[in-house]
Each structure stands twice: as C-alpha cells, then as structure tokens.
Design a protein that fits this description.
The complex is a heterodimer of chains A (575) and B (301).
Chain A (H helix, E strand, L loop, with lengths): L2 H31 L1 H19 L9 E9 L1 E3 L5 E3 H8 L1 H12 L2 E9 L3 H11 L5 E3 L5 H9 L6 H7 L4 H7 L4 H6 L10 E9 L2 E2 L3 E7 H7 L7 H13 L11 E2 L10 H4 L8 E3 L4 E3 L7 H13 L9 H6 L3 E7 L4 H4 L12 E3 L11 E4 L3 E10 L5 H11 L2 H8 L7 E4 L2 E4 L6 H4 L14 E5 H13 L9 H12 L5 E4 L11 H27 L7 H10 L2 H16 L1
Parallel strand pairs in A: 1-4, 1-5, 6-18, 9-12, 14-19
Antiparallel strand pairs in A: 2-3, 5-15, 6-7, 6-15, 8-12, 8-13, 8-14, 10-11, 16-17
Helix pairs in contact in A: 1-2, 2-3, 2-4, 3-4, 13-21, 19-20
Chain B lengths: L1 H11 L1 H30 L2 H6 L12 H7 L2 H33 L6 H13 L4 H10 L17 H12 L3 H9 L4 H12 L1 H17 L2 H6 L8 H13 L8 H13 L3 H31 L4
Helix pairs in contact in B: 2-15, 4-15, 5-8, 5-11, 5-13, 9-10, 11-15, 13-15
The chains are: A alpha/beta (575), B mainly alpha (301).
C-alpha cells in the first residue's frame, strides 16, 4: 500500500473510531448529564431539603417515585419557550418549593421527561417493554390499551391507594370533595378507578360555574362603524355584511369574514339555534343524549350558515390564521374570557386594537339559544396512572400532597411574595413580574405533564384579570370590560340562559371494552359522513330536500347506537 | 438532404432550443422558489411573515429569528449530534460497502451466489419496523446514540452498487497485480480502492444527505433530547407551530398553544434555512457524483 493511501486509511479509521466512541460513550454521560440530571436534580434538592428539615420534625423515610411524562413547555412574556426540564434543572423556585413540600410528605421524585412530540411513541414502547416506571402520563394511551393494562395487572387502582394509604386528605378529596364527581367518571366496570384526572372547579361568588365558549364578534369594528351589538341572528347577518360593505378593516376590500368550525356543531352559531356542541351530545336539562341532527333548529341553522356562505361572509379557505393576522376576521369561536385571539390580530398603525366579545343571538325561528359552557366541576383532558411497580405507601403520600391546598396554591399561584400577593383575602398574581417563571400562569408540572391539576378558579377574579389585561393590549382606559360584560351577564343570571355542555365526552363514564370496540367500529365512518354532509349542506352542494335520506343514512352508520352507548355511559355516572 | 434537415431540427432549431430553455427554467423555478420563499419569509418583518404575503423580496428586514436560533444552545447541540452521526456513518458505509462488495466480486469465493441471494432477500423483503425495534431494544441500543450509527453503517443496495462498479474494472488489472506478488488485500488496496474513488464518492454523498435528513429512527430510538439530531429538533419546531387548537383544550392550554404559534412563526423558516445550509453547500461540489450515482443505479448485470 502506498504511503499516501495508508495515511488516508489510518485517518479514516481513526476518525470513525473516535466519532463512534464519542457517540457511544455518550450513553453513560447522557444518563448523568442530561435526562438523569433533570431527574437527579430533584433528588439532590430533596436530599438537601431533607437534611435541612432534619433538625425540625423527624422526617418520614423518603420513598422514591419514578415518573414518565412529557416535557411540558410554555412561552414567557419575552417569547422564550421554557421547558419543564429547565425548571427541574434549577431555573424554578416553584419547583424547588414543590420538591421541598414533597419531602415533607416523605416522597422524592425521579423524572423521565420526554419531548412532547415523542411521548406517544415512548409511552407505547414502554408499555410494550413492560412499563418500568411508578407513574405514567397515559393521556396518549387509548381506552382499549388502558383496559388491557388493567387486565394484565399493570395499573393499580387509585381508589385502593386513597382508601388504604392516605392520611385522609386524598380520600376526602376524591370521595366527597372537589375530585369526587371526576373520580366517578373514571370508574371502570369493576368499580375501581385506575387513573387520576385533573379537576377545574369554577367559583363565582360561592356558586359553581364553568368557563364560557362560543361566537365572539369584533367589538372594535362595531364601535368604529357605530353599529349596535346584534341580538338576533338576522341582526348578526346584517352586521357581518356591514363589516364588509363599510370596509371595517379599511384595506379597501370586502374581505371581512368569520372563521368557525362549519363542519361541526361546536362553533357558537349552532348553539344560537339551540343545537348541541357535537354530533351526539348530552342535553344537560333532560339528562338525555341526543343529536343535533334530530333537533328542531337544525334546518334553520343550516339555512343561516348557507346564507353566510353565499354572501361570502364565511371563510372556507383554510387560511384563518393568516387572515386573522391580516385583520380580516370579524368573528371567531373560542373562550369568551381568553385574549389570545386579539394578540393574533395585526391592525394598521394608529387604529384601535382588536377586541373580540362573546354574543348570544336569538334565532328567527323562536328556538332558545344556548351558551356553550364547561361544567362547574370540569374534568381535564390529561390522565395519570400508577403502575404495579409503585410503592403504594409512597403513592398514598403523593396523592395526599396532590389533593392538598398547598399544592393547588403552588400550582396556580406560586409562592407568596414571589409570584403572587394576597389582597383583601384574594390571591393575585404579579402580572408585571420580570421573572420568567412568574410570567407563566400555571406551573408547568400540570396540564400535559406529570401531575393532575386541582384548580379552583375564582371566576369573578378572572373577569377582573381579563379586564386589566386589556389595558396593556390597546385599551388603556376601559381594558377588556366589554369582553367581561357578557360573561358576567351569564354568570349573574343563571336562570336566564340555557347552557350547552361543552364536551359530552368529558361528562360520561369510561367506556367498557365492548363499548370501546363498538365506538371504534362506528365513530370514524359516522363522523366523516356527518362532517361532510354538514359542509355540503352549508355550501349548497347538498339539498335540504333529501333530509330523510341523510337521516336514514346516518342511522345506518350507527347514530342511534352511538347515542345509546353514550347514554349508558352517562347513566353509569349517575348510578 | 432530408436526413441533414432532420438533424438540423433536432439539434439547432432556435424555437425548440427556446422551448427547452423555458422548460428547464420552469423546472428550476419550481425547484428553487420554495426554498427562496422560505428564505425571504425568514428575513421579513414578523408581521409580514405571519400573513405570508411575501413573494419576491423580503418585506422589511429582520434577523431576530436567526439571532434567537444562534443563541439556542439546544439547536447547536442537535447540530453537533448530526455531525457526530454523519461522519462515522459515511466512513463506515464506504468501508462496509467496499469490503463486502470486494468479497462478492471475488470469483473464487465459495457460495458466492448464495451469499448474494442471502443479501438480496432482505433488501426486497424487509422484516419491518417491529422486529428492528425489538432488536435494538435487545442489543441495548435504545436511548443510545449508537442506535443512529450501527444500523445505518451498511446498506445492501450500496454493496450491490459497489460490486457492480468493481465488475467494470478489468480482471487483467488484478491478475497483473497478482503476478507481481500482490495478495488478496493488496489487490483491494492497490487496484480496487484507487480505481473505485468515483463510486466511493457517490456512496459518501448518498450517506451524508441521507443521514443529514433522517429523523424517524431518532424519534423512535432516542427518547431524550441530548443525542437527538438536528432534523428531529426542526420537526419539533414545525409540529409545535402547526398543532391545531382542538375543541376540548382547556383555556390555559389553548392560550399557551396560540402564544407558542405566534412566537414561533418566523423561527421555523429561519430553522429550515439553517438546517439546510450545509447540505445546500455540499450539492454543487458533489453534483457530478450524483449524476454518476444515478447512472450506476440503472446498471443491469
């Protein structure tokens, strides 16, 4: 071999060996440097906290719980994305506080945080490999797999834990307290509950109320053009038309449109015609599951939407996000008290900033309009389970902490004097804090992360906060008072408004294995048909004259059976 | 006369030439414009980038997204990881392809046909993803950066490609080397390797581009961010930017999702440019090998 070639080969081989070994050796480094560092940070802090506390009460023996969950993230006021792992790695006093609190309960944590976009794959592969953790975020696991894990004994019943290993806090919370109604929803056929779900309780002056969702109109455009807030659907149509004709956004084009889910019933306008929020839904008044397809207002609703479509008032381009940024959206459907829709609108310099305000309009057919609302005690959408590896005593201690007042306060408000203060007995977050973690409203360990949320929302305070928020979003004088008004109106007059259940799926018990299989057999085809039909009818591609045929086809696709199954699930929550 | 006329039409007709140039120009435009579009979006002021109403030149000039990227230590780590996978993968791929192809090209090799068959079957009928996953798990490569190197350091297709190329090298050359006293390894080192440089370049380019662009294997085998490659990091930003606000999101979650999408609106464009840059720079230098590679792929025995 020539000398040059030899050198070349030697260099190649050396580079290969070095690169491969760098990567390979990294495995051990990884365990200590990164993922494990995220987790051991917590442990180290726990240990030091334990040492600090040693002089006071005799601490309980620390028991470790290993948790697998997504690395939740949030954006602070400077636009930086902050990950929960950043907090765990030392950037959060709130997390330090939680670790210290847990130490008091005799629990230390080891976390395995997976990027949110990979968590589904990782949980599934971990399930296949035998679940090596004590607690897992199972939000991405389908009901059938959950049932299978229960049958295999891989998940332990949480009610057994709070019955036998709680100091009473968790037991009270889940049996008679705020968590009881949600715990009931999670009960399986064997009478046990195998996963924990967060709870949001809304309190308005001592009465339970849920957050409102629905159609919201551009209040700033109404003011600009001197228009009144519409109170009937006919007035709503004329107002939306006026936005176009009088060029509300001032760009010289008649391009002001509304963006709504027109292929479903979850859009606010359907509720104005008294329709439920999904293709089969719980009627909260009667306790019956039914379908908007069977309701009286359906044809009038479709006719109204068709009218909007023909007049070019309904956006069907799929470019709603871009149009919102371009200041072309006159109406949206979202949370009435949220303010992200405004932030997404760019108005020309010198113009009044956007403000969306919720509205309920009476339909021309005499139906009673509904207001789409969460339940007063709302089940969250994230579930967490203890596996058979868990030390049940440690799980009991953890449950006691997760259902305690101190956990709820730390999660929702943080630390007194650091992220919130108490004014007249009411906890108020510092809204102008320079500290990144204080700018993030809710602690990152809840929602889609490692722990369930136990949230109590003071709805009256929420209205004040939203109004104040408006002052920094282009409404320096009155803030978002106009946004808060219709919400307050509904909260103050519960007898005047009929509410629609926001999500029926969150109000009914877990499906049994047979129900799960039947739903899987029917739902996809039925939903596709329902969505396509609604779209065609609204766009005028299908005629209302063939109504009986459509209903017959939906029955054939299993509408009645889906209603029946959901009714049975709802009845179980009552039983 | 008629034949000459025909040739003239084929080779020099100005109308046809113009048409071909127009078609080539169109093809180039269709290929290049999406990348250019992403570039001008990444450089425009955020309000214009959000509306996507930028078509020819950047509207305004804003480098904030690039500044944010440069300061992003996680992105640099992912960048370094990608290089850490590209280098050994390329070297090992060339090495394994050469050694195995040389062996298969050796006419006196016992059972050569069977060995070739043994290699060809899994090339056409792969065992599927589940078996690969179980194998990686059993080998202890799950959550290990070697999972990005070991399964990617050989390719039967590349072996066949190199073997086909080696077959074009005249036997007389290796026979002459043997007469001069060269052994099997010396023939490889002094005859096949020097003459096989073009095919090695082709394999190297394919491997570099393939490894640079790959993310799926990492998304399955690497659950933690520390050793994840750049493309997975890019995917994460794109997924977050396009996540849909479904009906049942809680208020806080919905607000956060919208906030994330607004803050990341320009970041994704800058990220696409940033991640594509090294490979874009590589293409002009390796273009001729790409062409050669395509021709080689079409060779039939």
């Amino acid at each position: 071999m020539r000398k040059g070639n030899k050198r070349l080969w030697a260099a190649f081989l050396a580079a290969t060996v070095v690169s491969a070994s760098l990567a390979g050796c990294g495995q051990s480094a990884e365990k200590t440097d990164s993922a494990a560092a995220e987790t051991t940070a917590a442990v180290e802090k726990t240990d030091s906290a334990a040492a600090d506390a040693a002089g006071e009460d005799a601490p309980k023996e620390l028991k470790t719980i290993r948790i697998l969950g997504p690395d939740n993230s949030a954006v602070d006021n400077n636009g930086n994305t902050i990950y929960f792992s950043d907090w765990v790695n030392g950037e959060s006093k709130k997390w330090e506080q939680l670790v210290s609190d847990l130490e008091g309960y005799g629990v230390k944590l080891e976390l395995d945080l997976i990027p949110a976009d990979q968590i589904e794959n990782v949980v599934q592969t971990q399930i296949a490999a035998g679940l090596d953790y004590d607690m897992v975020n199972i939000s991405t696991v389908d009901t059938k797999t959950r049932m299978s894990l229960v049958e295999q004994g891989k998940l332990v019943s949480v009610n057994e834990i709070w019955e036998n290993y709680s100091d009473g806090t968790a037991k009270e919370y889940y049996t008679t307290g705020a968590g009881s109604s949600v715990a009931k929803l999670n009960k399986l056929e064997d009478g046990n509950q195998y996963w924990l779900t967060g709870v949001t309780y809304g309190d308005y002056k001592g009465r339970g109320v849920g957050s409102l969702v629905g159609a919201m109109i551009r209040y700033d455009w109404l003011q600009k053009l001197g228009l009144e807030m519409p109170t009937t659907t006919e007035e709503l149509y004329q107002t939306l038309l006026a936005f176009q004709e009088q060029d509300a956004n001032g760009n010289g084009q008649a391009d002001e449109v509304i963006t709504l889910n027109y292929n479903s019933f979850y859009n606010g306008i359907a509720q104005m015609y008294g329709l439920g929020t999904s293709s089969y839904f719980l009627d909260s008044e009667t306790g019956k599951i039914t379908s908007p397809w069977y309701q009286d207002g359906i044809k009038d609703y479709i006719t109204f939407m068709n009218r909007l479509f023909k007049a070019g008032l309904l956006d069907t381009s799929g470019q709603a996000k871009e149009k919102q940024a371009e200041n072309k959206i006159s109406m949206v459907s979202t949370y009435w008290i949220g303010y992200s829709s405004e932030a997404a609108v760019t108005v020309p310099e010198g113009e009044q900033r956007a403000q969306f305000v919720g509205l309920v309009c009476d339909p021309e057919n005499g139906c009673t309009p509904l207001v789409n609302s969460q339940s007063a005690v709302q089940k969250n959408t994230y579930d967490f389970a203890f596996t058979s590896n868990v030390d049940k005593e440690a799980a009991g201690r953890l449950l006691d902490y997760l259902t305690s007042e101190e956990y709820a306060t730390l999660t929702e408000f943080g630390i007194e004097g650091y992220s919130y203060e108490v004014v007249d007995g009411v906890k108020q977050r510092f809204t102008d804090s320079d500290i990144s973690e204080c700018q993030i409203r809710v602690a990152l360990w809840v929602n889609d992360c490692i722990f369930p949320r136990a949230e109590t929302v003071d709805r009256a305070q929420e209205l004040v906060t939203a109004t104040e928020m408006g002052k920094s979003m282009g409404w320096p004088e009155e803030g978002f008072a106009a946004k808060a008004d219709p919400v307050r109106e509904v909260y103050e007059n519960p007898d005047k408004y009929k509410l629609a259940v926001k999500s029926t799926e969150l109000e009914v018990a877990v499906a049994t294995v047979e129900e799960t299989e039947r739903i899987a057999d029917l739902k996809t085809d039925f939903d596709t048909y329902s969505e396509e039909l609604l779209t065609k009818l609204i766009m005028g591609d299908a005629s209302l004259d063939n109504w009986d045929t459509y209903i017959a086809e939906m029955k054939e696709l299993g509408l009645d059976e889906l209603i029946e199954i959901t009714q049975a699930r709802y009845d179980r929550t009552l039983g | 006369m008629r034949q000459t006329k025909k040739r003239k039409i084929r080779e020099g007709n100005p109308a046809v030439t113009v048409l071909l140039y127009v078609l080539a120009g169109l093809a180039a435009f269709v290929t290049l414009y999406p990348m250019y579009y992403v570039l001008i979006l990444s450089l425009s002021e955020p309000e214009f980038a959000a509306t996507m109403k930028v078509y020819v030149l950047p509207k305004g000039f804003n480098l904030d997204a690039y500044t944010a990227l440069v300061r992003d230590t996680k992105m640099w780590r992912a960048y370094a990881n990608t290089f850490l996978y590209v280098i050994p993968n390329t070297i090992l791929m060339v090495l394994t392809s050469t050694v195995v192809a040389y062996g298969l090209n050796y006419k006196k090799l016992i059972g050569r046909k069977w060995l070739t068959m043994y290699l060809l079957i899994p090339m056409y009928f792969s065992g599927g993803f589940i078996t690969s996953f179980l194998l990686i798990l059993k080998l202890g490569l799950y959550d290990n950066p070697l999972s990005q190197i070991i399964p990617s350091c050989f390719s039967i297709w590349n072996i066949i490609l190199v073997r086909s190329y080696f077959r074009t090298i005249p036997d007389s050359l290796s026979e002459a080397a043997k007469i001069d006293g060269a052994g099997v390894m010396q023939v490889l080192a002094n005859v096949f390797i020097p003459l096989g440089k073009p095919i090695f370049a082709v394999i190297a380019v394919y491997t570099i581009v393939g490894t640079w662009n790959s993310w799926f294997r990492a998304s399955i085998y690497l659950p933690h961010t520390e050793w994840q490659p750049l493309q997975l990091y890019l995917r994460r930003i794109l997924v977050e930017a396009s996540a849909s606000a479904t009906d049942n999101l809680d208020l806080d979650v919905l607000e956060q999702l919208l906030k994330k999408q607004m803050s990341g609106v320009q970041l994704k464009y800058a990220m696409i440019i940033f991640t594509s840059l090294p490979v874009l720079c590589t293409y002009p230098f390796f273009q001729k090998y790409f062409v050669k590679g395509m021709v080689m792929g079409s060779l039939k025995e």
